[in-house]
Each structure stands twice: as C-alpha cells, then as structure tokens.
Amino acid sequence: MRATVASLRTPLKFVIWAPVVPDFETFTSRCAVLALANTLPFRTSPTTFLLSPIHPPSLDVLISKRLLVHFLELVDDVAIVAWEHVFALLRGLPRHAAMCVLKSWLNGWCTSRRFHEVRAFSCFLGCPAPDTFAPYHACPRLWNVVAARTHGQRSANTIERLGLVLGARQREALANLALAYTLYHELKIGNLQMSADAIRVRSFAALAHHLKAVAYAHAPRLGCR
Ligand SMILES: [Zn+2]
After folding, report:
1. What does the pLDDT look like over 87-102, one tens digit per residue?
2. Most buried among 48, 83, 97, 194, by the most CB within 10 A?
C-alpha cells in the first residue's frame, strides 16, 4: 500500500512505500499474527504493531531510524538534525536529486547485500568492504570522484556526507550525496564489467576517468555547483 508524504511541498510530493489504514482483511490478518505473539518474539509491542498502520511515523523519524540501522555510531548526530531546515534545502534541489538523497537516507541503494544477490560483491571501486550502503560513505575512490567535480571540496565525515550537518555547505553536501548515488548506480546498473576489470588488474585510473566524466555530465541536473 502506498502513502503520499506531502510534508515537504505541494506539488512536490514524495511517495514512499508505507502502510496506511488497513482494510478489514489486513486488520484480521494482523490479528491472526498477533495471536502468535505469545510464542514468537516481537520487535515491537503488539499495540505498536497494531497501530502502526494507522499512525505511520513521520518522515524525519523514519529516516532517523533507517540511518541508525547502518550508522549506529551517529546516534548523537542524528538526534540533533534540524530536519525542517534539511527538508527546506531538499525542496531547493532538483526533484530527481531530492529523490536520490531520500533513497540514500532510506537505504535505497541497489547493493547486492540489500537484494540478497547470490554473489555478494565487494565495493565496486576496489575497497576491501562489502557492497553495502554504509561503507560507500567512507569510500575514498567514490568521494575523490565527487570532489573532482566539486572543485576539491570534501566533507569531513559521514554525517556531513549525508548532508545532515547544519552549515553553509549543507545544500552542496546534499547535492553531492545525490551525485554519489548516481555514480554508484552508474557502475551497478550500467558498468559492472568495468568495475570487475579494474578490480582484477588493480588499476582504477580508467574507472576513475569514466566516473569523472559521468559526474560532470550529471552534476548540473543534480544541483551541484
Ligand atoms: Zn570503495
């Protein structure tokens, strides 16, 4: 079921997959599941489980929870994010860039771990890290390419790369996150063989050259300056 999150701006509405008020069949199905609550360990209380479709969490709460799944060390930083300001900046980005950012916060990268692919890849840019969302935010080759397009400006840490640190460069950080999202999927969707070849011969110059060309081509429509 779909719910439209219209908290950002009309007509800019972000559609996310989330439960809404259940119909009777769904409700009875949930009651049947709750009947097992005495024997199965639940991650939430039965009351929370039952009421969650009626009162879905707000977008900032949802994003915070998803982020902490991957970046538990950022719990203090995420707790003080000025979400209204972040959403205001997001509204100023091109719509496609805003979606890339939202999908990044909500673990929307098409990583092999997320899709439970048979072959579990490592970082497509050659790091000894799994192909999961979190390590890419510390991937030097990925962010070197982003920095090449953004005139050497670099975020100091993960929370800055996620665009969640208040400051003069926050809007740019959000656009850069959208660019990182685009670069990753350029490899994952379109050039997996190029990545495999670079990793096999341990030479990443051609790969970096290609990604820089992609970055320069996509940066304007993502709102990068
Ligand atoms: Zn890497």
Report:
1. 999 999 999 999 999 9
2. 97
For residue range 35-91, list pLDDT tens digits in order.
Answer: 544 444 445 556 555 555 566 679 999 999 999 999 999 999 999 999 999 999 999
Q: How many A from CA of 4 to the centre of ligand 1? A: 34
- Rounded distance from Cα 184 to ligand 1 centre (Å): 10
CB-CB contact of 216 with 210 (8 Å)? no
- The dihedral formed by the CA atoms of 64, 96, 208 and 105, expressed in degrees to the nearest 10: 10
Q: Can you tell me the distance from the alpha carbon of 124 to that of 177, in angstroms, rounded to the nearest whole number?
A: 17
- Which residue's entry shows tokens 């959000």? 174
- Is 61:52 a contact under the CB 8 Å cutoff? no
CA of 36 to the centre of ligand 1 (A): 43
Cα of 170 from ligand 1 centre, angstroms = 23
Alpha helices in the chain (DSSP H): 24-34, 46-51, 59-70, 75-79, 83-91, 95-105, 140-149, 158-161, 170-185, 192-201, 205-222
- What's the CA gap between 133 and 115, in Å, rounded? 12
Q: How far is the CA of 88 from the centre of ligand 1 (A)?
A: 31
Structure tokens at 144: 């070197």
CA of 2 to the centre of ligand 1 (A): 34
